Amino acid sequence: MKITKVAKAGTLESNDILIMVSPKDRGIIELDIESIVMQQFGEVIEQVILHKVQEMGVEGVSIKAQDRGALDYTIAARVETALNRAI
Amino acid sequence: METLRRSMLFMPGNSPRMLQDAAILGADSIILDLEDAVSLTEKDSARILVREAIKTIDYSAVEVIVRVNPLDTEFGAPDIDVIARVQPHTLLIPKANEDEIRLVDKILTKIEAEEGFPSGGIKIIALIETALGLENVFNVIKASPRTVGVLLGGEDLTADLGIERTKEGEEIFYARNKVATVCRALKVDAIDTPFTDTNDHEGLNKDTARGKGLGLTGKAAINPRQIETIHSVFAPTQNELKRALRILEAMEEAEKEGQGVFSLDGKMIDAPVINRAKRIVDQGVRLGLISGEGGAK
């Protein structure tokens, strides 16, 4: 899957996460996470995002995530939506 | 045992917080809404979020209903294709008509076969909110054996009829009657339109009782605060339960003595009265108001 444009999904409301994706060269996956629970769950958030990126076969992407306490299912859903919108 | 559908709580499909809370708010059924509660620009986002929520959140204590978009919009078909694959209990079909219900049934049958789900497992509730749908409600229900109920949509229906929607609800008297009668005839649930003033609990009580009095079996809610009132109206009263139990006891006695028709407190008791008593006792057992053996708790 090739990312061709900038796209967003999600919100900054509680229990949600705002994801912004933009194109990068093939093989480059950049991740920038900001979270109210970074210390406790930063690694988990990163894993959920990377898992979705791999699952969707994304070639290269930069992802900025602003988390407001989203559960895993919300993170996965918002990343999928943002990536679909960026094709 | 049949699914209890006294209350159906609408929850917006694009709100993670509300999707997480939905299961614990006390409603018998929750309607995860992909239609009116979701803006046109967020339809794709809500569809994926609801799919992930159903896959992840423990909704085992409630009936999960997803209101998809109408099939004559660009969102309807993808909604069904994505949501049916995570097996919600039920789909709520807006502006339901006979052809659309038949088409939804066909799509669901195909998806169930592809996914290895039991055929006919995903149920349908028809949202009746057009004059045509209302007049044809019998055939709408008959269009698919999956149809387990009808939800009356008072707001859209009155808009379609070109009349004002009022708090008193006189203008939907006929619609409530029609839906209740047809649903009773076809033995499916008849769910009343929501009461939209979430701060008027007395009004909600009256409106719910009005629907129940016409034969409706449950009511939709748009706020969790409405659930308790709806349940209290649809629960049988202690007096109703006591009388129903007495009728069934008297019936057993009469059967032992070989009597077909008998009287209790000077009134003749026949089959319709016995059937109503059985329904009340059955509901009392399901709500935990009386024990399975019929004794008062």
Could you characterize the architecture of this molecule?
The complex is a heterodimer of chains A (87) and B (297). Chain A has 87 residues and is of the alpha+beta class. Chain A has a single domain (7-85), classed as Ribosomal Protein S5, domain 2. Chain A contains two helices and four strands. In chain A, strands 1-2-4-3 form a four-stranded mixed β-sheet. Chain A starts with 6 loop residues before the first strand and ends with a helix. Chain B is α/β, with parallel strands linked by helices and 297 residues long. Chain B has two domains: 7-234, Phosphoenolpyruvate-binding domains (TIM Barrel, Alpha-Beta Barrel), CATH 3.20.20; 238-286, no CATH class. In chain B, strand 3, helix 3 (76-83) and strand 4 form a beta-alpha-beta unit. Chain B is globular and about 65 Å long. In chain B, 43% of the residues are buried. Chains A and B meet through helix 2 of A and helix 1 and helix 2 of B.
Strand content of chain B: 15-25%
Overall average pLDDT of chain A: 97
Order of helices and strands of chain B: EHEHEHEHEHHEHHEHEHHEEH
Enumerate the strands of the largest sheet of chain A in spatial order, edge to edge or round the barrel.
Answer: 1-2-4-3
Roughly how many Å apart are the termini of chain B? 21 Å
In CATH terms, what is the architecture of the largest domain in chain B?
Alpha-Beta Barrel
Number of helices of chain A: 2
What percent of residues of chain A are in strands? 25-35%
Whole-angstrom Rg of chain A: 12 Å
Number of domains of chain A: 1
- The H/E string of chain A reads EEEHEH
- Please give the largest β-sheet of chain B: 8 strands, parallel, barrel
Quaternary status of these chains? Answer: heterodimer
Low-confidence residue ranges of chain A: none
Structural class of chain B: alpha/beta
